[in-house]
Write a structure and sequence with these properties.
The complex is a heterodimer of chains A (507) and B (360). Chain A folds into two domains: 229 residues, 3-Layer(aba) Sandwich (Rossmann fold), CATH 3.40.50.300; 243 residues, 3-Layer(aba) Sandwich (Rossmann fold). Helices cover 32% and strands 23% of the residues of chain A. Chain A has 16 helices and 23 strands. In chain A, helix 3 packs across helix 5, helix 11 packs across helix 12 and helix 13 packs parallel to helix 14. In chain A, 50% of the residues are buried. Chain B has a domain of 207 residues. Helix content of chain B is 69%, strand content 3%. Chain B is built from 15 helices and two strands. Classes of the chains: A alpha/beta (507), B mainly alpha (360). The interface between A and B is medium-sized, with 41 and 24 residues.
C-alpha cells in the first residue's frame, strides 16, 4: 500500500435491524479514481457519509496520509481536504451561481473575486458556467457543475461523487469524465460511487465491490467485463433478458397533440406530444429526470385527464377518462414512486393488489369487496413474480424496493393489459430483480401487449425497446428504431449538453 | 436518555393497548388534579368511573349512560369515516343543531295532528338538515378549495345563532307565555322520541347508533367505498392512481357525517332534550371528535369510546353533585383523555430504546 491518501480499516456501522457496513477496508492513493460499486442498499452511501463526517462508525479506524482520521463533522472533513458532491443538490433556485457557491464555503471571498475564481476554475476544468446566472434557470447538468465547482474551490485532495451521472445526458457525462480525469492527473483522488458498470470501466482505476455491507472483491475494472462486475456485485449469475421478436400488430394507442399543464409548480408541462404504439412492441422513452416523465405517466394512467381526442385506445377517445375506466378498457400503468403512489405503504399486499386490480380482476361485487379473491390475486402475483415476503397480509412498506417493484409490475402484468405504461420500472431495484422485471415486460410484449417504458436508464431502454424516443422539456422526439442508434444520437434526442459546447480540456 | 425508533410495521398489540393505557394515565393525572383541588382522589375516580355502573344508584345512572352515549356514537361514526380519509369535519355540532331544528320544525308544523308517519318524516328531515349543512363546507372545498376545518367550524356559530333565533322566534311555543323554546315533544306523542325500554335508556337514537356502528364497520371493511376512504387517508396519490375521485369523496364523507350528526340532533331534541331551546345542544358534536379518536376511528372502538365518554359525563355529574367538583374539572378530565391518547399513540408506531441520539 504505497502512500495511501485515505485508508479505511475495518469500518463497521450498524443500524437497527441491518448492518450497513461490516468490517469494510480499502484505500485510495493520490490521483486514483476509485469506484465503490454495489447495488442499492449495499452500504456505499453509509460508507462515504462516514468519510465525510456525517455519520460516525461503530468500530474501525480511518487514516489520512498515515495519520488517524476521525472527522466529527463535515466541517472537519472539508478542512482535511475531503469534498463531496451529493446525488441530490442543495442549491437555492432564487440565487445566482456565485451566491450559491459562497453559501457553501467556510470563508467566502468578496462576490466579485469569487465570480472571477469560479470563471477560472470552470474554464480550467472544462465546466462552462456563468457565475451570474440564476440557479433556477440551469439544467440538471449545469446545477451539478455548480456543486462540483463549489467543491473544487476548496482545492480538495479527495473528491467524493455519489451517483453523479443519473441526471446527465451522454454528452454531459463525457464532459464530466474529462473533468474528473484532469483532476486525477493533478493528483486529486476521486471516490466514485455508482452502479453503472460501463462508466466505471471507462473511468476508474480501482474498484471496491460491496455486497450487503461487506467488501466482496476488488479489481481493476478495465480488465473485467461488465458482466463479471455485475455478477460480483450481485453474487450470482445474471439472467440477461432474452427477447423473441414478433411482428408488430395494429396500432392500439395513439397520442395526438397531447399538451398538459403540470399540477406541480416545479413540474414540466407536456407540449404537443405525439406517439403511436402498436400491439406487441416496446417503446422506450428516455430523458433526463424532470423533463415531463411524471406528467406523461399521469396523462396516460388517467390521473391527469384532459382532452378526449388527445389519447385514443384502439380507436376510442379516452383522453377524458379516469384511471378506473381506462383500466376497464385495457390501459394499465405502473408509476415510478412505489411507496405512496403505486402502492399504499401501510396497507397489506392483499389491499394493494385490490388497489388497481378491482376492475379487471372483478374483486368487487356490486360495491362489496371480495377480499378472498383479492387475496388469491395477491398470492398469484407473489408466486408468479417471485416476490419475497412471508405472505399477502404483510404491509407493502415491509418489502424491499426490488420485491415491491416486482409486486407492482406483476400486479399490472397479470391483469392482461392491452397497453402497459411503466415509469422507471427498475429504479432502485437490485440487478437480478431488474432482469426479472425486464424479462416480464418483454414476455408481455411478445404476447401482444403494447408496452411504453419510460426510464432514465439508457442501457435498459436499449436492451428492451424496439423504438426509442426522448422527452426533453415536455416535448417528445420522434421515435426511431433502437437498432443502430448511436449514443451520440440518443444524447442529441435528449437535448444534447443543453446548448453547451463540450469544452476541450488540454491534457 | 431515551430515543424513539420507528417500528417496521405498526404494533397490533400496542394499537389495542394504548386506549386502555390512556384511560389509566387519565385516572392518575385526574386523581392528582382532584387531590390538588382538595377532593379525595380515590373517591372522585370511583364516583366517576365505578359508581355509575356498579354503585348504589346505578339503576338511575345506567339509563343515563345510553342516553348520553347514543348521540356521541352516532356523530363519531360519521366523523371517523371522514377522518380516515383526511377530511376534517370539525363542525358536527352545527350539523347536529341544524338537523334538530329541521326535524323539529317539520314535526311542529303538523302539531297537533296524530299520524304514525310524522316521526319517521322528522327523522328524514333531521338527517337532511345535517346533510345540507355539511354540504356547505363540502361544496366550498371542492369548488374553491377552501379549508373544510375552518368553514365547518365557523358554521357551528352560524348554526348557534340560528338556534337562538328560532327558539325565541319562529319555533317558539305559542302557549309558552313568552318564554323562549319550542313546544315540548313529550306533549306531542306522534312526534315524541319516547323510551322503548325506559330502565335501560333505550330510545330510537340508541337503535340508530347501533345500526350506524354496524353500517360503519361493514362500509370500512367490506365495501369498495370504505377501501377508497382508507386508501385516501393513507396514501392520497395512490388513491388517485387507483381511480378515487377526491372531490366526490369529500362530498360523500361530509354528507354521511352531516346526516348522522343531524339524526343525532333530531333524536336528542325530540327525546331527552324534549324541545328546541337556546341551549338544548350539549356540545355532543365537539365531544364526538374526542370519541372518534379515542375509538381509533374504528366503528367498534368508537362504540366503546362513546360509552366511556358517556361514563365521564354521567360520573362527572355525580361527582359534581356529591363531591362538589367544579364542572370545569370534569371537562379537563375529558381533555386529558384525548391528550394522553394522542401522546401514547406514538408507542404503536415507535418503540422506545435507551441510548443517545445519533449525532447526524
Amino acid at each position: 500500500m504505497r502512500g495511501a491518501l485515505l485508508a479505511v480499516d475495518g469500518i463497521t456501522k450498524a443500524y437497527p435491524g441491518v448492518i450497513a457496513n461490516d468490517h469494510v477496508s480499502f484505500s485510495v492513493a493520490p490521483g486514483e479514481v476509485h469506484a465503490l460499486l454495489g447495488e442499492n442498499g449495499a452500504g456505499k452511501s453509509t460508507l462515504v457519509k462516514m468519510i465525510y463526517g456525517l455519520v460516525r462508525p461503530d468500530a474501525g479506524a480511518m487514516q489520512w496520509n498515515g495519520a488517524p482520521y476521525a472527522p466529527a463533522s463535515p466541517h472537519v472533513a472539508r478542512q482535511t481536504g475531503v469534498a463531496m458532491v451529493f446525488q441530490h443538490f442543495s442549491l437555492f433556485e432564487a440565487l445566482n451561481v456565485a451566491e450559491n457557491v459562497a453559501l457553501g464555503m467556510e470563508n467566502p471571498p468578496a462576490m466579485r473575486e469569487l465570480a472571477g475564481r469560479i470563471r477560472t476554475v470552470s474554464e480550467r476544468y472544462g465546466l462552462p458556467l456563468d457565475p451570474n446566472r440564476l440557479v433556477g434557470e440551469l439544467s440538471a447538468g449545469e446545477r451539478q457543475r455548480v456543486e462540483i465547482i463549489r467543491c473544487l474551490l476548496q482545492e480538495p485532495r479527495l473528491l467524493i461523487m455519489d451517483e453523479p451521472t443519473s441526471v446527465l445526458t451522454p454528452q454531459e457525462v463525457e464532459i464530466l469524465f474529462e473533468t474528473l480525469k484532469k483532476l486525477s492527473t493533478e493528483g486529486t483522488a476521486i471516490l466514485y460511487i455508482s452502479h453503472k458498470l460501463e462508466e466505471i470501466r471507462t473511468l476508474c482505476d480501482e474498484a471496491t465491490i460491496l455486497r450487503q455491507g461487506k467488501v466482496v472483491g476488488t479489481c481493476e475494472p478495465a480488465r473485467k467485463s461488465a458482466r463479471d462486475l455485475a455478477e460480483m456485485m450481485v453474487g450470482q449469475a445474471l439472467n440477461i433478458p432474452t427477447r423473441q421478436t414478433g411482428e408488430p400488430g395494429e396500432v392500439v394507442l395513439e397520442i395526438t397533440g397531447l399538451s398538459l399543464a403540470s399540477e406541480n409548480p416545479f413540474g414540466t408541462a407536456l407540449t404537443d406530444v405525439n406517439l403511436t404504439v402498436r400491439a406487441g412492441e416496446v417503446i422506450g422513452i428516455g430523458g433526463v429526470a424532470g423533463n415531463g416523465q411524471d406528467e406523461l405517466l399521469g396523462a396516460l394512467s388517467g390521473e391527469l385527464p384532459g382532452v378526449p381526442t388527445a389519447i385514443r385506445l384502439k380507436g376510442q377517445d379516452i383522453g377524458h377518462l379516469g384511471p378506473g375506466q381506462r383500466r376497464a378498457l385495457g390501459l394499465l400503468a405502473a408509476p415510478e414512486e412505489r411507496l405512496g403512489h403505486a402502492a399504499a405503504p401501510d396497507m397489506s399486499l392483499t389491499e394493494n393488489a385490490a388497489l388497481t386490480g378491482t376492475v379487471r380482476e372483478r374483486l368487487a361485487d356490486r360495491g362489496f369487496m371480495n377480499w378472498r379473491r383479492a387475496r388469491s390475486f395477491a398470492e398469484a402475483i407473489i408466486a408468479d413474480f417471485d416476490v419475497r415476503t412471508p405472505g399477502p397480509e404483510n404491509a407493502a412498506r415491509a418489502l424491499s424496493g426490488g420485491n415491491l417493484q416486482k409486486f407492482v409490475i406483476g400486479r399490472e402484468v397479470l391483469q392482461r393489459p392491452e397497453v402497459l405504461v411503466v415509469n422507471q420500472p427498475t429504479w432502485g431495484v437490485d440487478a437480478s430483480a431488474a432482469a426479472d422485471i425486464r424479462q416480464a415486460l418483454l414476455d408481455l410484449a411478445h404476447k401482444g401487449t403494447a408496452v411504453v417504458c419510460i426510464s432514465q436508464d439508457l442501457d435498459e431502454l436499449m436492451e428492451i425497446s424496439d423504438r426509442f424516443a426522448a422527452l426533453n422539456e415536455g416535448r417528445l422526439s420522434a421515435p426511431r428504431p433502437t437498432k443502430g442508434l448511436s449514443v451520440e444520437e440518443i444524447g442529441l434526442m435528449m437535448g444534447g449538453a443543453h446548448g453547451l459546447e463540450a469544452a476541450h480540456v488540454p491534457a | 436518555m431515551f430515543r424513539l425508533e420507528k417500528r417496521p410495521a405498526p404494533s397490533r398489540a400496542w394499537t389495542a393497548a394504548t386506549p386502555v393505557l390512556a384511560v389509566l394515565l387519565t385516572m392518575l393525572a385526574g386523581g392528582a388534579l382532584f387531590a390538588f383541588l382538595g377532593t379525595d382522589p380515590v373517591a372522585a375516580i370511583r364516583t366517576i368511573f365505578w359508581d355509575p355502573i356498579f354503585g348504589e344508584f346505578a339503576f338511575y345512572y345506567r339509563g343515563q349512560l345510553l342516553v348520553k352515549a347514543a348521540p356521541l356514537i352516532l356523530i363519531a361514526i360519521g366523523l371517523s369515516l371522514g377522518f380516515r380519509a383526511g377530511i376534517w369535519n370539525i363542525g358536527a355540532e352545527g350539523q347536529y343543531i341544524i338537523g334538530a331544528i329541521s326535524g323539529a320544525a317539520l314535526g311542529l308544523a303538523f302539531y297537533p295532528t296524530e299520524n304514525r308517519l310524522i316521526f319517521p318524516a322528522m327523522v328524514i328531515a333531521g338527517a337532511f338538515g345535517g346533510w345540507a349543512w355539511a354540504m356547505i363546507p363540502a361544496i366550498l372545498r371542492t369548488r374553491f378549495n377552501t379549508n373544510e376545518i375552518l368553514v365547518s367550524l365557523m358554521l357551528v356559530y352560524v348554526a348557534e345563532a340560528i338556534l337562538a333565533s328560532v327558539s325565541s322566534g319562529l319555533l317558539r311555543n305559542p302557549d309558552g307565555m313568552g318564554f323562549p323554546g319550542s313546544r315540548n315533544f313529550s306533549d306531542y306523542p306522534a312526534a315524541h322520541n319516547d323510551f322503548l325500554i325506559e330502565s335501560a335508556g333505550v330510545h330510537w337514537g340508541v337503535i340508530a347508533a347501533l345500526i350506524a356502528v354496524v353500517f360503519g364497520h361493514v362500509l370500512l371493511n367490506r365495501h369498495l367505498l370504505g377501501f377508497h376512504i382508507r386508501l385516501t387517508g393513507q396514501a392520497p396519490r395512490a388513491a388517485r392512481f387507483a381511480g378515487v375521485n377526491p372531490s366526490l369523496l369529500v362530498v360523500v364523507c361530509l354528507g354521511i357525517s352531516g346526516a348522522l350528526a343531524g339524526l343525532a340532533g333530531l333524536f336528542e331534541v325530540s327525546g331527552p332534550a324534549g324541545q328546541i331551546s337556546i341551549d338544548f345542544n350539549s356540545n355532543y358534536g365537539f365531544t364526538a371528535i374526542i370519541v372518534a379518536f379515542l375509538g381509533r376511528l374504528n366503528p367498534i372502538g368508537v362504540m366503546l369510546a362513546g360509552l366511556l365518554m358517556a361514563l365521564t359525563y354521567v360520573g362527572g355529574d355525580a361527582a359534581a353533585s356529591t363531591l362538589g367538583l367544579p364542572a370545569a374539572a370534569i371537562q379537563l378530565l375529558q381533555g386529558m383523555l384525548l391528550f394522553f391518547l394522542l401522546a401514547v399513540d406514538v408507542l404503536s408506531n415507535y418503540r422506545i430504546r435507551p441510548g443517545k441520539r445519533e449525532a447526524a
